[in-house]
Amino acid sequence: MYCLQCLIPVLLIPKPTNPALMQTHVMFIVLYLIGFFLERKPCTICSLVFLVAVFLICNSGLGNCIFWSNCEGHQEEAAPIA
């Protein structure tokens, strides 16, 4: 599990509170992961453990997913023009 020591901090990077910065955050995380997998070439077991951890965190419903925010209920609806 030596391969995972550089991947575990990725799960702990906080999401930005400003929704406008969410795309930049997601792009950074995706590019970091692609670069990590291309450069370090972690073993299959470590890769699967990391992907399962990301899947479980994203589907836990706690709003901790590193790839998107769970703020669908907080979006303001446009007022109808009368």
UniProtKB/TrEMBL annotation:
One Gene Ontology cellular component: membrane
Subcellular localization, as worded in the UniProt entry: Membrane
UniProt cross-references to Pfam families, sorted A to Z: BC10 (PF06726)
InterPro entries named in the record: BCALP
Major location (coarse): membrane
Claim: Iron is one of the keywords in the record: no
Keywords per UniProt: Membrane, Transmembrane, Transmembrane helix
SMART domains: BC10
Transmembrane segments: 20-38, 45-69
Record's function text: Acts as a tumor suppressor; induces growth arrest at G(1)/S checkpoint and apoptosis via RB1-dependent and p53/TP53- and NF-kappa-B-independent mechanisms. Modulates expression of genes involved in the regulation of proliferation, cell cycle and apoptosis.
Family, as annotated: Belongs to the BLCAP family.
Protein name (Swiss-Prot/TrEMBL): Bladder cancer-associated protein
Gene source species: Culex pipiens pipiens (Northern house mosquito)
